[in-house]
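Researcher: Quick test of sequence recovery. Tokens follow.
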């Protein structure tokens, strides 16, 4: 059976202090040649190998980066993680992935765990419930490398990678309007997230451009981002029970978009005959839905790559990084049958 020996084991066997053994193994000139010979021969005899974790702590580098996302099962984030790993591993870094499940409490616990694992930096996409970002502010003020992607903390001056959320929502809404829909509802995550705010602004701007009203009753938030299916169901049922229900829905994240379809069908509504649907999702099966879904697709893989490149550059910078960039990527609107007027 394989046995792993430590410096303490060598020190105990040779009746030496651990510091003497450590210096002898490192070839220190402070240690006499006889002692050095004794330690090295014994280390060779027991096949001693340095502990890489202990070495990384000594160097204060673990060659690992921590990732904080809402959930890996989310198509968008799974693609972003593939992008993260493609750059990280080629740059000599391991990736430790954590999931918040849209909980601020779990996000904080994840960050603390990653820090205890001595990660060299963090890639963060905030949870839907995160309002207090003080842990990131404190880390950033100490020079700890952080890059936000997709869901960013706007007031912390660090590198960010985002998409053009305003433009994406504007184009998706305008496509519904040009297909003949006039009563368009907006299904979004919590307004805590900057992406929710920007997408709503783009949505409203498209309605205003075409002179369409937007009753308050057509606006619904799912504060857990669609993780709780009841939230989506309550929103859709509420709309369809209105005296003048919407004839189209724009949803703003992966879970909300794909979650609407089975709920509408279960309630007996046909897409797009009764209500059209367009939304943000990177689901690879969006075109296999019945009907195929009109979607805003984000460059998730590229976003993960860019965020990781910025993080590695920050970690490996010889001097403190004081100039930060916000990279803005464009989205792709793919129009399919779910938003074509019957």
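Model:
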């Amino acid at each position: 059976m394989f046995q792993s020996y430590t410096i303490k084991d060598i020190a105990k066997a040779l009746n030496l202090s651990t510091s003497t053994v450590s210096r002898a193994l490192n070839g220190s000139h402070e240690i006499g040649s006889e002692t050095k010979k004794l330690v090295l021969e014994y280390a060779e005899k027991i096949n001693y190998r340095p502990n890489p974790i202990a070495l990384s702590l000594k160097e204060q580098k673990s060659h690992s980066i921590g990732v904080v996302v809402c959930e890996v099962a989310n198509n968008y984030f799974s693609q972003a993680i593939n992008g993260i790993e493609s750059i990280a591993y080629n740059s000599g870094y391991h990736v430790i992935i954590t999931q918040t499940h849209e909980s601020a409490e779990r996000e904080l616990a994840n960050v603390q765990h990653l820090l205890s694992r001595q990660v060299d930096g963090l890639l963060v996409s905030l949870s839907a419930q995160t309002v207090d970002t003080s842990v990131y502010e404190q880390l950033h003020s100490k020079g700890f490398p952080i890059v936000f992607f997709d869901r960013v903390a706007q007031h912390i001056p660090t590198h960010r990678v985002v998409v053009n959320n305003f433009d994406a929502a504007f184009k998706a809404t305008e496509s519904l309007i040009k297909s003949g829909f006039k009563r368009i509802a907006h299904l979004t995550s919590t307004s805590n997230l900057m992406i929710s705010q920007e997408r709503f602004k783009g949505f409203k701007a498209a309605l205003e451009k075409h002179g369409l009203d937007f009753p308050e009753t057509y606006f619904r938030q799912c504060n857990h981002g669609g993780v709780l299916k009841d939230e989506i169901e309550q929103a859709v049922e509420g709309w369809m029970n209105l005296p003048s229900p919407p004839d189209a829905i724009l949803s703003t994240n992966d879970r909300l978009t794909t979650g609407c379809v089975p709920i509408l069908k279960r309630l007996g509504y046909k897409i797009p005959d009764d209500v059209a649907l367009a939304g943000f999702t990177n689901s690879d099966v969006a075109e296999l839905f019945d009907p195929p879904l009109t979607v805003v697709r984000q460059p998730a893989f590229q976003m993960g790559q860019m965020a990781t490149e910025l993080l590695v550059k920050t970690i490996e910078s010889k001097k403190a990084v004081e100039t930060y960039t916000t990279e803005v990527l464009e989205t792709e609107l793919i129009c399919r049958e779910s938003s074509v007027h019957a």
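The radius of gyration is 26 Å.
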